[in-house]
Write a structure and sequence with these properties.
By secondary structure, the protein is an alpha/beta fold. The chain has two domains: 293 residues, Aldehyde Dehydrogenase, Chain A, domain 1, CATH 3.40.605.10; 180 residues, Aldehyde Dehydrogenase, Chain A, domain 2 (3-Layer(aba) Sandwich). Helix content is 38%, strand content 19%. The protein has 15 helices and 22 strands. It has a seven-stranded mixed β-sheet with strand order 15-17-18-13-12-19-20, with helices on both faces. The chain has a five-stranded parallel β-sheet with strand order 9-8-7-10-11, sandwiched between helices. The chain has a four-stranded mixed β-sheet with strand order 21-6-5-22, with no helix packed on it. Strand 10, helix 8 and strand 11 form a beta-alpha-beta unit. Helix 2 runs antiparallel to helix 4, helix 2 crosses helix 6 and helix 9 packs parallel to helix 10. 51% of the residues are buried. The mean pLDDT is 96. It binds NADP nicotinamide-adenine-dinucleotide phosphate. NADP nicotinamide-adenine-dinucleotide phosphate binds next to helix 7 and helix 8.
């Protein structure tokens, strides 16, 4: 593609000093895609981080309105890439045009939503304790605090969202909104898409007069590039979206640095779905249709894919299981994102099938071109599930494991032994859901988002969203990677004691010049 160079963005300069090269592959037909991409050298990575550090002292002091304009300009520049971006992202991921176009809209809206937060300005959580010189027995001094940005941040995106969880994705939007400068490690599965989006951000840096170094993006097909970012002493936090293995490795490396730093790793999840007996008896066939759709949507390549379905065994349940088997068997094998995602999926399903207690039923519609993932329904009883903890682990792709529990107390036992997940879903009739308040109580300790009578796939980008959860779903359950709450991950509270008015940030000045919401006593 003529307007791609395969180079790295070292601040506003393009650079390709390395000798390690790689190319993207079209997973639909296994053909290599032009051009070649240059893996960043250690020197290039260090230069990018040093530029980010210098830029930080200027960027952090830009006003909320200036940063908001910057985020909106990035969104406009992404749209201006037009069909070139859509076509490249489709070619690199095998995802259809409709999906990529929708994801572009989501990515732009995400940037604009953070811009609206900056225009409002209240996110900084300003708190003012005024001085009380006459307080007895001791006077109280003037104490004020607010959130301030952390510094340069490293960002890693995932292969399954080439736009929304990649170069200008949620982590980039929230880190830039907080006032941090960023170094993105481009995902090697979609380097051309990454370069195009990188050029959009770089144009916005110039147009909005942001300092050189506000944004860098380095390519890399080896772990060395990512680890060079994580281990650099000037990097102050990491935003990661991807596999458990990758997130854990990066988290452990960040914890072992002389100065450990926070890692917000959003990793895989199995998203348990609990189906209550009344709902199965009343609308088992509809639930089977909804579930088959959710499991196979986007070839099952969502971190919110329902990979574990717990139901109570009864006569109606056997009709539900047959209906789900039939529906899954009618869904064709489709193209997966990459060779390695496809291989990992096939291996994960084979591992499950090797368990003697697991029954399997595959889609009958095979397609041998490209890297195809065949939908799979796997079934097991609750005792076998209890005895084999590994069955709970994510198999990234269009499969789900159906667990039959003999009664409610067994369902509760399964829930209480679950690890952390991003979501948990309850499907039931209104009256019976009330009888399962104890199940909701258990699940609240396990996940970041609880869903009633819906499916976990589809994550709304909004103020109230929580896309996170206890380990191993993430490395920090106190935050979210989707929605505006994410901004606080890249900031920390700073306290200003006994400061003269003229030295206080605008947000903390006594006459509240920005008219933001504050806590004042
Ligand atoms: P991945 O293989 O972990 O890759 C993500 C990024 O991390 C890539 O840039 C990768 O670089 C890097 N990386 C991986 N292992 C590393 C290591 N040991 N050291 C340094 N860098 C490393 O994930 P993926 O296959 O792209 O994405 C699929 C996974 O993401 C699924 O498990 C899915 O559930 C999860 N996901 C989670 C969310 C969420 O919000 N929780 C959202 C979307 C996807 P290289 O490729 O160069 O290794």
């Amino acid at each position: 593609m003529k307007n791609l160079t395969g180079q790295n963005f070292i601040g506003q300069s393009k650079s390709s000093n390395g000798t390690t090269i790689f190319h993207a592959e079209n997973p639909e037909n296994k053909h290599p895609l032009e051009p070649l991409f240059y893996e960043a050298t250690t020197n290039e990575i260090h230069t990018a981080i040093e530029k980010a550090d210098q830029a930080f002292s200027i960027y952090k002091n830009k006003s909320g309105l200036e940063k908001a304009k910057f985020l909106e300009t990035i969104a406009d520049e992404i749209l201006a890439l037009g069909d070139t971006l859509i076509q490249r992202a489709c070619a690199e991921t095998g995802l259809p045009v409709g999906r990529i176009t929708g994801e572009r809209g989501r990515t732009m809206n995400q940037l604009k939503l953070f811009a609206s937060v900056l225009k409002d300005g209240s996110w900084v959580d300003a708190r003012i304790d005024k001085a009380q010189p006459d307080r007895q027995p001791f006077p109280k001094v003037d104490i004020r605090s607010m959130n301030r940005p952390l510094g340069p941040v490293g960002i890693f995106g995932a292969s399954n969202f080439p736009l929304a969880f990649s170069v200008a994705g949620g982590d980039t939007a929230s880190a830039l909104a907080a006032g941090c400068t960023i170094i993105v490690k481009g995902h090697p599965a979609h380097p051309g898409t990454s370069e195009l989006v990188g050029s959009a951000i770089s144009n916005a840096v110039t147009k909005c007069d942001m300092p050189d170094g506000t944004f860098s993006m380095v390519h890399g097909a080896s772990y060395d590039v990512g680890m060079a970012i994580v281990n650099h002493p000037l990097i102050q936090a990491i935003g990661f979206t991807g596999s458990f293995k990758g997130g854990k490795a990066i988290h452990d490396a960040a914890r072992s640095r002389p100065q450990p730093i926070p890692v917000y790793a959003e990793m895989g999840s199995t998203n348990p779905v609990f189906i209550l007996p009344g709902a199965i008896a009343k609308r088992g066939d509809d639930i089977a249709a909804g579930l088959a759709h959710s499991v196979t949507l986007g070839v099952g390549q969502f971190c919110t894919n329902p990979g574990l379905v717990i139901h109570q065994d009864a006569e109606a349940a056997s009709n539900f299981r047959s209906s789900l088997e039939e529906k899954i068997s009618q869904i064709p094998a489709e193209t997966m994102l990459t060779k390695s995602v496809c291989n990992a999926y096939n291996k994960g399903v084979e591992n499950l099938k090797h368990h003697v207690g697991v029954k399997a039923k595959s889609s009958g519609i095979e397609n041998n071109n490209g890297y195809r993932g065949t939908p799979q329904l796997l079934q097991v009883d609750s005792q076998y599930f209890h005895d084999n903890k590994k069955l709970e682990e994510e198999v990234f792709g269009p499969s789900t494991l159906l667990v039959a529990a003999p009664n409610k107390s067994e369902m509760l036992k399964i829930a209480s032994q679950l690890d952390g997940h991003l979501t948990a879903t309850l499907i039931g009739e209104s009256d019976e859901i009330k009888e399962y308040a104890d199940l909701i109580d258990i699940l609240e300790r396990k996940v970041g988002r609880l869903i009633i009578n819906g499916y976990p796939t589809g994550v709304e980008v909004c103020h109230a969203m929580v896309h996170g959860g206890p380990y191993p779903a993430t490395t920090d359950s106190r935050s979210t990677s989707v929605g505006t709450r994410a901004i606080t991950r890249f900031a920390r509270p700073i306290c200003y004691q006994n400061f003269p008015e003229e030295l206080l940030p605008e947000e903390l000045k006594s006459d509240n010049p920005l008219s933001i919401k504050r806590l004042e006593v």
